[in-house]
Amino acid sequence: MEEPFEKLLSGRTFQALSALVYQHSRIRLGPDKQALVANRLRKRLRALELGSYEEYCHVLHSPHGADEVEELVDLISTNHTHFYREPEHFAFLTKRALPALVGPLGATGAPLRLWSAAASSGEEPYTMAIAVAEFLRDHPGLDWEITATDISHRMLAEAREGIYSMGSVKPVPLELLKRYFQKGFGARTGVCRVKPELRRHLRFERVNLFQEHLPVAANQHVIFCRNVMIYFDPPSRALAVERLARHLAPGGYLVVGHSESLMGIPHGLQPVQQGVFQKT
Ligand SMILES: C[S@@+](CC[C@H](N)C(=O)[O-])C[C@H]1O[C@@H](n2cnc3c(N)ncnc32)[C@H](O)[C@@H]1O
Question: Among positive and negative, which fits the CA dihedral 132, 133, 139, 140?
Answer without folding.
Answer: positive
